[in-house]
Amino acid sequence: MDDEKLNKFIASTNEQIVIFGGHIASLRASVTVLKFALAGEMNRDHPEKALALFAQLEKQFLDSDPNEQQRKEIAEMMEAVKLSRKHGGTHEA
Predict the structure, then answer these.
(1) What is the C-alpha to C-alpha distance for residues 89 and 12, in angstroms, rounded to an integer?
(2) With contact defined as beta carbons under 8 Å apart, do 39 and 54 qualify?
(3) For residues 57 and 67, what is the distance between their CA atoms, to the nearest angstrom?
C-alpha cells in the first residue's frame, strides 16, 4: 500500500472514529438521563443513594467483563502508538 492510499485509509478511519465517538457520547447522555429518572423513582427522597448503587453495579459488571481488560490493553497500546508518532516514532525498513 503506497503512502497516498495509506493516508486516505487513515483519514477515512479517523472520520469514522469521530462519528462513532459522537454516537457514543449521545448514548452516554441518554443512559445518564435514564439513570437519573430511575434513581428518582427508586428513592424519591435520596436519589443519590440509587445513583451510588448504579455506580457500584457498573463497576462490578466491568470488573467481571473479560472484554474490559482486553479493551484497556488495546487502549494502552493505541496511546503508546500515538505518543510514538507524536515524538517521531521509529522508522524501520
Answers:
(1) 22
(2) yes
(3) 17
Nearest CA among 72, 71, 40, 68 for reference residue 54: 40
Cell 423513582 maps to which residue? 41
Residue type, 51: L
Using the structure block, give the residue that is written with the C-alpha cell 443519590.
48
Predicted TM-score of the model (pTM): 0.56
Provide the H-helix boundaries in 1-93: 3-42, 47-64, 66-86
Instruction: Print pLDDT tens along the chain (93 aa).
Output: 688 888 899 999 999 999 999 999 999 999 999 999 999 999 899 999 999 999 999 888 888 888 888 888 888 988 988 888 888 765 554
